[in-house]
Every structure is written in C-alpha cells, then in structure tokens.
Amino acid sequence: MKSPQNSPSALLELIDALKCLPGVGPRSAQRMAYHLLQRDQTGARRLAFSLNLALDTLVRCSLCNNYSEHEVCSLCRDDERDRSKLCVVEMPADLLMMEQARCHQGLYYVLQGRLSPLDGIGPKDIALEQLLKRAQDGVVEEVILATNYTAEGEATAYYIAEMLKRQQIGVTRIARGLPVGGELEHVDSGTLAQAVYERKPV
Amino acid sequence: MKSPQNSPSALLELIDALKCLPGVGPRSAQRMAYHLLQRDQTGARRLAFSLNLALDTLVRCSLCNNYSEHEVCSLCRDDERDRSKLCVVEMPADLLMMEQARCHQGLYYVLQGRLSPLDGIGPKDIALEQLLKRAQDGVVEEVILATNYTAEGEATAYYIAEMLKRQQIGVTRIARGLPVGGELEHVDSGTLAQAVYERKPV
C-alpha cells in the first residue's frame, strides 16, 4: 500500500522501521503502527526502551556464546552443572528447549547459526573456532551434538564431529527415532525408516 | 515457551515488550528478539528511535482527527481541496485507500474507531461530538459517510446520519453493490441481493 505524501513523516518512518521485524510486511507494519499509536502508547514506549536496553547491555558469553549481561553467563557460572559435558546447539531457543526437557546437566555451546552453503554460511561464519578452543579446556570430556536433524543441522554436526575427533575429543550425537508416545501409523515414513535403520539390540 | 531463570533479564524484557504488537505471541516475540539481536541491530536501534519519534511528534489534526505533525495536517491545509465536502472514514488506513482511489477531492474526518456496543465502544468513545462541530463550520455542505459496510460500520453511519440530519446538514452514504469488474457468478449472495434491492433506474 502506497502512502500519499500528506502522511506525517514520523508515521511513515515508524511503519518503515517496523518492517525490520521478521514476517512483517507493509500492511502488518501499518496495522502495528496504528495499533501502537491508538491503543498502546505505553507499550510502544516500553518497546523502544527495551530495544535500546537489550542492544546496550547484551553481550555474548565468552564461554557458551549465548546472550548474557555479563562476560560469563549465569548458566556457565553455575557450580552445580557438570563441566565435563558440553552440549552444542544451533540457537538460544534450542538451549531453552533443552533446559525445559531437564535432560542435560552439563554446559552448553550456542553456535548462533548453522552451516548453510546455499545461504553462503560457511565454517567461518559460525563460531566453530571458538567452540574448538572451548572444547579443549581440559575439563570437557564429551561434546554432545544437539543440532537439528535438518540437512543444515546434520551437515553442521558432521563438520563439528570431524573437527573435534581430530583433536581426540569425545563426540556424541543425540538420537533420532520415533517420538515418545509416537505411533507407527502417524509418524512420517522418513523417521520410521531411519528408526528401523538405527535399531538397537535389546 | 517458558524461559529459564538464567536468561538475561534484558532479553526477557525485550521479548515481553514485543508482545504488545498485534498478532505477536510469546513464540513470535522470541523469534523477533533473536532476529533483531543477531541479524539486525541497526534495524532494532532505528525501530526504537522511530517509536519514540512518533510518540513525541504525532498529534491529532484539530480539523480531521488524523495523525499529524502539526496542529492542522497538510491535507486539511491544502487550498486545492473542495472544502464543501467532508468524507467520514473509520481509520487512517481508510483515508489512504480513498486517496489512492482519487475519487474524493474534499476533506476528511477520521473517527479513529467505530461504534461497537459489544466491545463497549459507544458514541462518547469515538470523536463524534468533534465531528458534529466540524460539520457545522458553515462551509461543509455535504458529509459523505464512508464507514465500512460491516455491522459496526453500518451502525456508525446510521448514528452519524441521524445526528447530522437533526442539524440540517446534508448527508450521503457511499454506494453498495457489485464490485467493478464483478461477475454475478462469483459475487457473494448477500452483495447480489443488496445490489438488486438497491437497483437504480437507467
């Protein structure tokens, strides 16, 4: 939707700025701008404040590469975590899922991305060198690869495994198979075939 | 998705603040926050600036009630517009559509809402008194009601028409019927029935 010249420039500027949000096009941006101005000026002011606060205070944790307000994040500083196990995930959201599942008592390393040659993202564009250094701290005994089971996640896991094995660091990959509670009738055939292929002795 | 306690508070605060945007829930807010921090810090800073700028500079035009950076907006100040015709629309977006259609050379009045008893929006919650005063400036000869053809838009038009007719101000309503290029086969039956009911002599 084109806006006529007589729209105030601060409004046009706000609509344009909202388009930086993922999944927000011109129409949504316009709807959001009017919503904020008409119904939620408090929310708008708070959003502006929070954006600046996050940009000003968040840094990458020097150990796990996740967002943190300190040089080393609170999770990496937690004395109760098992420092011999390092779980590698693609994104901070994956770390949150792991924590919710309460299945890992060790530490994490967040790649903040994945290898994706088609998008021009190579080994130098994600923090792999820093991971190699991190895994060689003399305390880490096992690196658990928990990247996604997508093509990119698989390639990333393979690349990291090769990199770490060259340095005699133990590497494991989270299992693939039927979901818990999954029924053969309802699972996709690719997952089922892989579950049969990776069957284990009982 | 719950966030564990060890997420930095500035990040949690940003995710929470993003939820003030219409149609944005916890998951989208999280995705937006990570996107801004990882890929578009410039965009995030600009968004914060634009929000504050819009909140600080935009006021309602004293003539048309639309957003403006001046007490009277540029459209209302335009000498080439026909000041005898006043078109009433619900929202600023409707005014933009009218301008794009280039079908109205007069001025506008933006209600910034519609009557909606179910949502508790009565005559006092939209700027109807100000409209009545505006229409009685001695120059306006015709008020063109261009509210939506929804239940609320219709009720709003009816209420405004009654209010203005009591003051002997000429009121018209934009036509309802088949869309331009519309085929009987593809139009909804409500629209078709209304088009037959409102048929005109040729």
UniProtKB/TrEMBL annotation, chains A, B:
<keyword id="KW-0479">Metal-binding</keyword>
<keyword id="KW-0862">Zinc</keyword>
<feature type="domain" description="Toprim">
    <location>
        <begin position="84"/>
        <end position="179"/>
    </location>
</feature>
<dbReference type="Pfam" id="PF21176">
    <property type="entry name" value="RecR_HhH"/>
</dbReference>
<dbReference type="GO" id="GO:0003677">
    <property type="term" value="F:DNA binding"/>
</dbReference>
<keyword id="KW-0234">DNA repair</keyword>
<dbReference type="InterPro" id="IPR023627">
    <property type="entry name" value="Rcmb_RecR"/>
</dbReference>
<protein>
    <recommendedName>
        <fullName>Recombination protein RecR</fullName>
    </recommendedName>
</protein>
<keyword id="KW-0233">DNA recombination</keyword>
<dbReference type="InterPro" id="IPR034137">
    <property type="entry name" value="TOPRIM_RecR"/>
</dbReference>
<dbReference type="GO" id="GO:0006310">
    <property type="term" value="P:DNA recombination"/>
</dbReference>
<dbReference type="Pfam" id="PF02132">
    <property type="entry name" value="RecR_ZnF"/>
</dbReference>
<dbReference type="GO" id="GO:0006281">
    <property type="term" value="P:DNA repair"/>
</dbReference>
<keyword id="KW-0863">Zinc-finger</keyword>
<dbReference type="GO" id="GO:0008270">
    <property type="term" value="F:zinc ion binding"/>
</dbReference>
<keyword id="KW-0227">DNA damage</keyword>
<comment type="function">
    <text>May play a role in DNA repair. It seems to be involved in an RecBC-independent recombinational process of DNA repair. It may act with RecF and RecO.</text>
</comment>
<comment type="similarity">
    <text>Belongs to the RecR family.</text>
</comment>
<feature type="zinc finger region" description="C4-type">
    <location>
        <begin position="61"/>
        <end position="76"/>
    </location>
</feature>
<dbReference type="InterPro" id="IPR000093">
    <property type="entry name" value="DNA_Rcmb_RecR"/>
</dbReference>
<dbReference type="Pfam" id="PF21175">
    <property type="entry name" value="RecR_C"/>
</dbReference>
<dbReference type="InterPro" id="IPR006171">
    <property type="entry name" value="TOPRIM_dom"/>
</dbReference>
<dbReference type="Pfam" id="PF13662">
    <property type="entry name" value="Toprim_4"/>
</dbReference>
<dbReference type="InterPro" id="IPR015967">
    <property type="entry name" value="Rcmb_RecR_Znf"/>
</dbReference>
